[in-house]
């Protein structure tokens, strides 16, 4: 079982759980696993999301990579999907993003991409972990074979041009758009993209200082952008997370547009244009049942995976599918990119709104979202394994399941990125499902909390 890697790389409190020493080891082991078959000097692209600890971890990670003989290309601050795109386009052997995504600034993370711009499968992550845990002797080249660092020339403009190229001929003149950049990696590129497409762009939280990333802003804190959209008569608001691989929206009436609603709007458009391969969308177990009802009514199949956009993508690759995503806003348009891409998803959503000549609020009405309660229980990582074996938790969960109807469901799972257990209950009676979720969270915290 993996201990370092979660659903989206290795994360922890920077300089405590995620130390420079661990970053160095990850650099060495990751470089060895991902570049050992390279015929020339291996090349790895490295970027970060701008949080204060990024410099420290970048230095340690880079030292590890260079110690294996890798040429490291530093990109500075870039969104995660830009890393996936640039790795593919410029034929790097691997890519690394230093980011904790939507987590607070104290956290940071390291996630790897292979030469195809894909997040690593479990077996490769396990191989990297095994090398670190066993303190395996890895190569230590000397002299001219020691790795070096170069500054990457590709950066922002190339990624911005790529995103715009996915909607040829689109011009958003007359459309007023608000962007919440979460004081993160999209701050440096999202406004450029939408301005080039002709929109009137108003930005919020686009002044990163290394410490304010995700601080009461971005896709996990939608209050500000909802208020801004209504107060300034915006046509739509888009909110990104710290590293730009997810996006949630707000319609012209200030209503939330989550990943499920975006999948419904964009998926139906792709289906009607013959671009939804297999007439199938891929979602996760967290997606709302309303999405299933919507898909069924339009002749679209919906396949559910485990939580994590990497699992969504694995299914898409296995069945050659073009579209999938998560309720949280990771949206994968596989004909364009190999990971969740918040800016690209925003461009695709606006393209549908523009071509259908309807407001965002009109399109949202197409899908009925069932009431859903999601409450987090605080549980230390070292006690997560007890969730599935604790008799009292299992008993209370079974009692709750017995009270649910055919239209209701419960999902209890450990977070892959934070020390939390997520309890989700879905149904038509908000009062009922709220109480049941609160009851179970209380039990989980009593049994496993600190």
Explain the overall architecture.
A seven-stranded mixed beta sheet has the order 1-2-6-5-3-4-7, sandwiched between helices. The chain has three domains: 5-153, Alpha-D-Glucose-1,6-Bisphosphate, Chain A, domain 3 (3-Layer(aba) Sandwich), CATH 3.40.120.10; 158-364, Alpha-D-Glucose-1,6-Bisphosphate, subunit A, domain 3 (Alpha-D-Glucose-1,6-Bisphosphate, Chain A, domain 3, 3-Layer(aba) Sandwich); 372-448, TATA-Binding Protein (2-Layer Sandwich), CATH 3.30.310.50. The model has no long low-confidence stretch (mean pLDDT 94). Helix 1 crosses helix 2 (54-67). Helix 6 (190-196) links the parallel strand 8 and strand 9. It contains 14 helices and 19 strands. 36% of the residues lie in helices and 20% in strands. It has 450 residues and is an alpha/beta fold.
Features:
450 residues; alpha/beta; Alpha-D-Glucose-1,6-Bisphosphate, Chain A, domain 3; TATA-Binding Protein; 3 domains; seven-stranded mixed β-sheet; 20% strand; globular
């Amino acid at each position: 079982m993996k201990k370092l890697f979660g659903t989206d790389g290795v994360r922890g409190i920077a300089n405590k759980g995620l130390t420079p020493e661990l970053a160095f080891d990850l650099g060495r082991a990751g470089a060895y696993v991902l570049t050992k078959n390279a015929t020339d000097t291996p090349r790895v692209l490295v970027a970060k999301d701008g949080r204060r600890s990024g410099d420290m971890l970048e230095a340690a990670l880079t030292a590890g990579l260079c110690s294996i003989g890798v040429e490291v290309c530093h990109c500075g601050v870039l969104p995660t999907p830009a890393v996936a795109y640039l790795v593919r386009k410029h034929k790097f052997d691997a890519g690394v993003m230093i980011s904790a995504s939507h987590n607070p600034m104290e956290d940071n993370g390291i996630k790897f991409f292979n030469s195809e711009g894909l997040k690593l499968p479990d077996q490769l992550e396990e191989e990297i972990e095994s090398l670190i845990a066993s303190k395996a002797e890895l190569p230590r080249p000397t002299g001219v074979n020691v790795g070096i660092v170069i500054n990457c020339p590709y950066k922002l403009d190339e990624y911005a041009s790529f995103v715009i190229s996915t909607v040829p001929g689109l011009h958003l003149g007359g459309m007023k758009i608000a962007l919440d950049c979460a004081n993160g990696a999209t701050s440096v590129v999202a406004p450029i993209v939408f301005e080039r497409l002709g929109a009137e762009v108003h930005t919020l939280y686009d002044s990163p200082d290394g410490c304010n990333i995700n601080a009461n802003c971005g896709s996990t804190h939608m209050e500000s952008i909802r208020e801004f959209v209504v107060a300034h008569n915006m046509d739509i608001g888009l909110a990104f997370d710290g590293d730009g691989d997810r996006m949630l929206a707000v319609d012209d009436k200030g209503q939330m547009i989550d990943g499920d609603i975006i999948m419904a709007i964009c998926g139906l458009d792709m289906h009607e244009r013959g671009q939804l391969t297999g007439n199938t969308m891929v979602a996760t177990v967290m997606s709302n049942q309303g999405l299933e009802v919507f898909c069924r009514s339009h002749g679209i199949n919906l396949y559910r995976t485990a939580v994590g956009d990497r699992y969504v993508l694995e299914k898409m690759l296995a069945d050659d599918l073009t579209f999938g995503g998560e309720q949280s806003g990771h949206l994968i348009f596989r004909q364009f990119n190999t990971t969740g891409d918040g800016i690209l998803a925003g461009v695709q959503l606006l393209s549908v709104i523009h071509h259908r000549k309807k407001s965002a609020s009109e399109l949202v009405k197409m899908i009925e979202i069932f009431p859903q309660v999601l409450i987090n229980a605080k549980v230390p990582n070292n006690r997560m394994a007890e969730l599935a074996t604790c008799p009292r938790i299992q008993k209370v969960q079974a009692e709750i399941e017995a009270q649910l109807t055919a239209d209701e469901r419960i999902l209890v799972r450990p977070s892959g990125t934070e020390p939390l257990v997520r309890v989700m209950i879905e149904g038509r009676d908000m009062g009922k499902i709220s109480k049941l979720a609160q009851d179970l969270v209380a039990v989980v915290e009593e049994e496993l909390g600190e």
